[in-house]
From TrEMBL:
Pfam families listed in its UniProt record: PmbA_TldD_3rd (PF19289)
Name recorded for this polypeptide: Metallopeptidase TldD-related protein
Every Metalloprotease TldD/E C-terminal domain range: 71-304
Molecular functions per Gene Ontology: metallopeptidase activity
Family: Belongs to the peptidase U62 family.
Top-rank lineage group of the source organism: Bacteria
GO CC aspect terms: cytosol
Length: 307
């Protein structure tokens, strides 16, 4: 397209540990996985032990877990894996093709306030070893750390060459495609929220009654409106500022832009999820990473037991 020739080596491995345990007549199953742009030698004995212990912990806690009360309540998004909510419910709406077609709720929102001042969201292809790490995008454009939301203000979309030309800006190195059989389009790479001014302990202590959403599995998102439903396999109940009991099989329902506005605290413990996620869009799948610090959303709808 530009007369450029680039060569890139993109290793990719993933290791799953799937566990089923039985106590009496009750059976529980869960899993954990490690993934990234690594060779097989990256999976040391220490990492294998970590993976096995993580799978055991996630599975065994389910024997004592209950479904939480249903209703609207504060939700603490755990650091790391909760980044999938950021990716799905917010990140897709910041891909420039959706905004160019005016199908994203973030269309025409550049320069406008979308979150509290302590919220900064980036999409960073330069994080070495992550599934979303790249040296160049699939159009040959250099990659970067793109600031999407800068201290609460919408700063940029994710651009491929077509959208960059439309908006008269430079491409952000976000043109990605599944293979040579597909056309590039704006896609996320490694999407995360940067550290905030609070601590995890302060966040939990501030919650009178709510939950911690810890291990996400699947979900559904309407990119245009930003409405979402996510299923959470593992979590914790918070009562009077203390973690009191494990919970399981939780649905959380909300709206991405509204949840972003309702972020009231962000901790200083950002981490990227160590598992392997693959993002689908318009029939194409690409590897991605996402992360989050411990984050408090003041209200979301939780599907649990009616009590």
């Amino acid at each position: 397209m530009h007369g450029n020739v680039h060569t890139d080596v993109r290793p990719m491995t993933r290791l799953w540990c799937m566990l089923t345990a039985k106590k009496g007549d009750v059976t529980q199953s869960n899993s954990a996985n490690l993934a990234g742009r690594h060779g097989f030698d990256w999976y040391t004995d220490e990492r294998l032990e970590f993976l096995a212990k993580e799978a055991v912990s996630r599975t065994m806690v389910l024997f004592d877990a209950k479904r939480p009360p249903a209703g609207e309540m504060p939700v603490v998004l755990a650091a790391g894996a909760s980044g999938i909510l950021l990716h799905e419910a917010i990140g897709h709406g910041m891909e420039a093709d959706f905004n160019r077609k005016n199908t994203s709720i973030y269309a025409s929102m550049i320069g406008k306030k979308v979150a509290p001042d302590f919220v900064t969201i980036v999409d960073d292809a330069t994080q070495a070893g992550e599934r979303g790490a790249l040296n160049v995008d699939d159009e040959g454009n250099p990659v970067e750390k793109t600031v999407l939301v800068d201290h609460g203000v919408m700063a940029s979309y994710l651009h491929d060459s077509i959208s960059a030309k439309h908006y008269k800006v430079k491409a952000t190195g976000s043109g990605r495609r599944e293979s040579f059989r597909h056309s590039p389009m704006p896609r996320m790479r490694s999407t995360y929220m940067e550290n905030g001014p609070h601590t995890r302990e302060e966040i939990i202590a501030s919650v009178k009654k709510g939950i911690i959403a810890e291990t996400f599995t699947n979900g559904q998102v309407q990119i245009g409106a930003g409405d979402f439903t996510f299923y959470i396999k593992n979590g914790w109940l918070i009562e009077d500022g203390k973690i009191t009991a494990p919970i399981k099989d939780i649905n959380i329902i909300g709206n991405g832009p509204e949840a972003l506005r309702n972020v009231t605290m962000v901790a200083n413990d950002c981490k990227l999820d160590f598992g392997g996620w693959t993002c689908g869009k318009d029939g194409q799948s690409v590897p991605v990473s996402q992360g989050l610090p411990t984050t408090l959303v003041s209200k979301m709808t939780v599907g649990g037991e009616n009590v």
